[in-house]
Amino acid sequence: MSENVVVTHALTKRYGRRTALSDCTVQVPAGRVVGLVGPNGAGKSTLLQLVCGLLEPTAGRLEVLGERPRSGSARVGFVAQDTPVYAGLTVEEHLAFGARLNPSWDDAVARRRIDDLGLDPTQRAGRLSGGQRAQLALTLAIAKRPDLLLLDEPVAALDPLARREFLQALMEFIADEGTSVVMSSHLVTDLERVCDFLIVLSRSKVKVTGEVEELLATHHRLTGARIDPAALGPGRQVVQARHTDVQSSLVVRSSAPIDDPAFRVDGIDLEDLVLAYMSEAGAGRVLERQP
């Protein structure tokens, strides 16, 4: 497999005059758990639907697993926002349906997960709880044995316990299979638990991408006497600047250590980093941190 499972260049999707995704250039590395984060309407769902072939781009280039994406590919698993299952079908009928549609279907994996989850195979999906429906949808995606798993806000509507159980199941699957995963979310806590690579979208544009560990190591909060951010000098990208009459608080990206007696230099966490890029984009209220 290529070192990148998704490659885009100037990828754009428009609906009439509305631009849902603009000039998106990213590389999604293989074997990683990628967090795709941004406010509602940022373009996260559009990007995932382009990747799995449900949408055609307006402009730009897109490769998924080395080829043009196509809807229904057995190599790509997709769980949409509403964790799509068929209310009138039983759990057992969902498994049978998945087996018929996917040549790489692993029935043993599917049935083991259903058993571990305590789901009744004769129960209709419409009578399952939200968490159970999400777990069923994840089971159907996993049993395809995909090379790439796409998750579009899969836990946004779940209560904290169901969300934690879903993420635990996801982490166990990743540990066992090593599948590449892209998960969109506006819940920072979810990303902190499972993701090691980050893509931040806002207002249809990519704001930053990179390994989480590297991003956290190269972003700092500087606090000191009020200063014009342009005076910091070269090699320091000011992501966010806030000022009072006498003080400045700056989030700065710098590959070199910052040793400046004029400032107190602190690290930032993932929530601070994402919020800084959202604030820079002028996006207003952006993310939620939930238990």
Could you name the key traits of this structure?
291 residues, alpha/beta, Rossmann fold, 2 domains, six-stranded mixed β-sheet, four-stranded antiparallel β-sheet, 31% strand, elongated, ATP-binding, AAA+_ATPase, nucleotide-binding, ABC_Transporter_VariousFunc, transport
Give an overview of the whole structure.
This protein has 291 residues and is of the alpha/beta class. It has two domains: 4-212, P-loop containing nucleotide triphosphate hydrolases (Rossmann fold, 3-Layer(aba) Sandwich), CATH 3.40.50; 219-280, no CATH class. It has helices at residues 44-51, 91-101, 107-117, 130-142, 160-177, 188-194, 212-218, 270-280; strands spanning 4-15, 18-29, 33-37, 59-64, 76-79, 148-152, 180-185, 197-202, 205-211, 219-225, 237-243, 247-253, 263-267. The strands form three sheets. It has a six-stranded mixed beta sheet, sandwiched between helices. Strands 11-12-10-13 form a four-stranded antiparallel beta sheet. A three-stranded antiparallel beta sheet has the order 2-1-4, covered by helices on one side. β1 (4-15) and β2 form a beta hairpin. It starts with a strand and ends in an 11-residue tail after the last helix. Residues 281-291 have low confidence and may be disordered.
CATH architecture of the largest domain: 3-Layer(aba) Sandwich
Instruction: Give the CATH class of the largest domain.
Output: Alpha Beta
Number of spatially distinct domains: 2
SSE sequence, one letter per element: EEEHEEHHHEHEHEEHEEEEH
Q: How are the strands of the largest sheet arranged?
A: 5-6-7-3-8-9
How many strand elements?
13
Largest sheet, in brief, is: 6 strands, mixed
- Rounded mean pLDDT is 89
User: Roughly how many Å apart are the termini?
Assistant: 37 Å
Overall morphology: elongated
Total count of helical runs of at least 4 residues: 8
Classify the fold: give the CATH topology of the largest domain.
Rossmann fold
Low-confidence stretches: 281-291
Tell me the strand percentage band.
25-35%
- The CATH homologous superfamily of the largest domain is called P-loop containing nucleotide triphosphate hydrolases
Specify Rg, calculated over alpha carbons. Answer: 21 Å
Structural class: alpha/beta
Q: What fraction, in percent, of the residue positions are helical? A: 25-40%
Organism: Paractinoplanes rishiriensis
GO molecular function: ATP binding; ATP hydrolysis activity
Keywords: ATP-binding, Nucleotide-binding, Transport
Protein name: ABC transporter ATP-binding protein
